[in-house]
Design a protein that fits this description.
about 400 residues, alpha/beta, 6-stranded parallel sheet, 14 helices, about 20% strand
């Protein structure tokens, strides 16, 4: 079968790889009909998330049809159409039973962190979902059957991006009438905005520099701030009568960028040396290719702006990905404001069933975020477009294996 394979930092390819096989009684083999490219995949290619093994199949978002079932999978039938939760969980340990699926004690044989598809060895080393077929461990829990009415375009958003954005809004403790700022208007940021609306936010500020992403945020009703044209902290303070916002969601993570023009660039100029050192620490090995695979040049920028933008006693939700080698956080400023901070990898399986219900009730149509469809054979060009932010979110359509 064909799959998108990580070969090294700055190097990916579509290759022929062996078909997956049932290895455990709780496994399933799914013929994938759709996958997607996520910002986390770009971290591996840019070199900001270490530990990837050459030959790893990328991707952790998938929709498909069940082709094989292990004897221990009792709640699915062959031919069922399913969405696959991005994080892998056993369903039996104390963390799973409490809904903390991202902290499953059993799914990750190589460490104590979150197990997920298409990641480094420390995340379990599981082959990813940007392939024609995939093995789903603990399939009785990790797959959710899809209603016939849900299209692949809608369903693929339920594998990772929508649950992640929704969890971000929950971690922020958004209440009716709250004023919220979302830093980063990529796919997760867009769903964080949508989820903040669903939870009753009164005002939402959306901070980014990419015009198309800001336009999508504006279409959702967010008040947009372009950090390449204005200082986001100053603007948020001005728009809130110098109070700040009640809640902030960091949907950026390790590949945050500093402003290179405008008032914000002038304001952070004294920090340039510090930001350069951070960027080098986070991504010591890089292999850029023209305009592609450049890591962020200010890993702590979104965190700094988030803390400065919050009102006293506000809440900070961190859903953007940070690695073990990220060391900088404005802890003093956060403490002196009595801020509450919550963060972590998404417990996808806890959210997928209820988000399916929201889509079925037409409370939201997640497919509106889709900006491009590509066949698996064009996955590399799609990656490059997403990497340079030419597209907001790209669905990879998978053809049947021959």
């Amino acid at each position: 079968m064909r799959a998108v394979v990580w070969q090294g930092i700055g190097e990916i390819a579509v290759e022929e790889v062996p078909d997956p096989k049932i290895e455990q009684p709780t496994d399933a083999i799914v013929r994938l009909t759709a996958s997607a490219i996520c910002g986390t995949d770009l971290h591996f290619i840019r070199g900001t998330m270490p530990g990837m093994k050459p030959g790893t199949i990328l991707g952790h978002e998938g929709v498909g049809v069940v082709e094989q079932l292990g004897d221990g999978v009792r709640n699915f039938n062959l031919g069922d159409r399913v969405v696959i939760a991005s994080t892998i969980a056993c369903g039996n340990c104390s963390y799973c039973r409490a809904g903390y699926y991202a902290q499953c004690d059993k799914a990750n044989p190589n460490g104590t962190g979150t197990a997920f598809f298409g990641g480094p060895e420390s995340a379990g080393g599981y082959p990813g979902l940007q392939a024609e077929k995939a093995r789903v461990p603990f399939a009785n829990l990790g797959m959710v059957k899809l209603p016939d009415e849900l299209s692949d375009d809608q369903a693929i958003l339920l594998s990772d991006i929508f649950p992640t954005g929704f969890m971000a809004a929950e971690l922020a403790e958004i209440r009716l009438g709250n004023t919220v700022a979302v830093f980063g208007c990529g796919p997760v940021g867009q769903f964080a905005i949508a989820s903040a609306r669903l939870l009753g936010a009164g005002r939402i500020f959306a901070v980014d520099r990419v015009a198309s992403r800001l336009a999508m945020a504006r279409a959702q009703g967010a008040e947009v701030i372009d950090f390449s044209k204005e200082d986001p902290v100053t603007t948020i303070k001005q728009l809130t009568e110098n109070i700040g916002v009640d809640r902030v969601i960091d949907a950026v993570g390790v590949d945050a960028e500093r402003p290179h023009q405008g008032p914000a660039a002038k304001k952070i100029k004294p920090q340039a040396q510090q930001l350069d050192a951070e960027a080098k620490q986070v991504a010591p090995k890089q292999h850029p290719d023209g305009d592609n695979w450049h890591s962020g040049d200010a890993p702590s920028m979104a965190l700094q702006w988030a803390v400065e933008s919050l009102a006293k006693a506000g809440s900070l939700s961190i859903i953007g990905v940070y690695g073990d080698n990220n060391r900088v956080f404005p802890i003093g400023a956060a403490m002196n404001k009595n801020l509450t901070m919550k963060m972590g990898n998404c417990n996808h399986r806890a959210y997928i069933p209820r988000l399916i219900e929201l889509v079925m009730a037409r409370a939201i149509d997640p497919s509106l975020i889709l900006t491009q469809h590509e066949p698996l054979t064009d996955a590399i060009s799609a990656y490059k477009a997403f990497d340079t932010r030419q597209e907001s979110w790209i669905k990879v359509e998978l053809l049947p294996t021959h």
